[in-house]
Amino acid sequence: MNDQVVNIRGLHKHFRSAGEDVPVFENFSLSLNAGESLAVMGPSGSGKSTLLNVLSGLEPWSSGSIELFGKEMSPRDDARWASLRRSAIATVFQEANLMPALTLAENLRLRAELAGRESPDVTDWLEKLGLEGLDRRFPDQVSGGQRQRAALAMAFAMVPELILADEPTGSLDRKTAERVADAMFRFQRRNGCPLILATHDPDLAERCGRTLTLNSHG
After folding, report:
1. Residues in Cβ contact with 96 at an 8 Å cutoff, skipping those fewer than 6 apart
2. I need a surface site. Which of 31, 83, 84, 118 has the fewest CB within 10 A?
3. Are 184 and 110 in contact (CB under 8 A)?
């Protein structure tokens, strides 16, 4: 069985600015196997968030190939990307993606249901991330940091095959950030789920098995 989850070969990604192509990645390659964790570091504008967006199908790439779970992906196959985001790829970005009309607990249950998972013990997941007693609160009734932690709990609830996390502890104080990181890496190890983590925090990056540092051209 092939345990390679991510395989990027010769990726080129450009943005248009002032009528010119601005390169983000040029001939970029990366592979990641099941159970591995990768920290992506680099200055602002180096492409950390762009890489995660490409791997979640939220941004197209210019040329090169991407294989996920052993299958070639197309930047234009929106239905397939949507299916992967629903059932296999958990994205935890800087802006928590919560449904405002649902409580935190209902957000978790919905995420698990969309992924075809059994209803999780949402109270347990919320407690693990320091959100005990907030299960009936709506997203606008909690802080930004609490919403970020709820978004990570949603990722756990879907039991993904790949986690993409963009600065998941960036808005948290040090003590809370350590608690969240502990929960994230415990989940990742227990489930053998590969993790790609974009971060500016060297302490958080050190907890990953590998580190990739991007420059301004990927």
Report:
1. 139, 144, 147, 148, 150, 151
2. 118
3. no
